[in-house]
Amino acid sequence: MGVALFDAVLLIALIGAYLWYIRGDRSGRAPVDRITSYRRWMLRAPLAFGASALVALLLTGRWDAFAVLPPEFAPLIPGARRLAGFGDNVVHLKVAVLAGFAAGAVIGLGIAWWRAHRGQRQLMSGKFAALLPRTAGETGWTAALGITAAVVEELFFRLALPLFAASVTGSPLLSMTLATALFAYAHRYQGWAGVAASALVGVTLAILYLATGQLWFPMLVHALLNLNALVLRPLLVPVSSSDASRS
Questions:
Q1: Which of 189, 203, 198 lies closest to 226 in space, CA to CA?
Q2: Which residues, 6+ apart, have CB-to-CB distance to 237 below 8 Å?
Q3: Where are the domains of the chain?
Q4: pTM for the predicted model, two decimal places
Q5: Which of 64, 86, 104, 192 has the largest CB neighbor count within 10 A?
Q6: Does residue 146 contact residue 223 with C-beta atoms inside 8 Å?
Q7: Distance between CA atoms of 189 and 29, rounded to whole angstroms?
Q8: Is 150 helix (H, G, I), strand (E, B) or coil?
């Protein structure tokens, strides 16, 4: 079997894993037992995204892609760095992103506290209030969920899926766009507002990956975003019954 054909087979397998995940994903519903929902997700997502990506990279001997940006993505680097606004200064970009995240998290917490103090509903970009923890036990699960999601989703949507799509189509831009669109659609349980927000996050993470050339950095940013939304904010500003009823 030729390399191109083998890559096409692996791309089909990755898309199949994605379809298997979204067909069985019921996380958007409000389960009676949220921990059961968390456990279901912790089983399905690592299998669909993490395991499929690792197997595809293993079968093609592309382990170097974990540490070095694949050459297939090289044409996208200049545009990503222009959009990031720091040129080739990757260190300054990382510092600015992390500082901006910290400032945004503090401002977001302040707004959430102020709205809760006034008895107003919390601002949410999607219908995911039913997933937010209400007990200490649930907080531990959401923390694990947020970190796991960051690792396996970045591995799948920022590396494996666009890499094999680029190999098959010859267009890294089309491939990264496709991966970002599928990433956004995987969050369809949050409603169209959540899909739009996820698309924006996906574009941002793709730019950070291409601009830095290091997969661990968008993984870190993704994990921080998840932990802020699923752990820190609910811990400091508990979810009210009126907010939960919106999901």
A1: 198
A2: 109, 112, 113, 116, 122
A3: 3-244
A4: 0.89
A5: 86
A6: yes
A7: 8
A8: helix
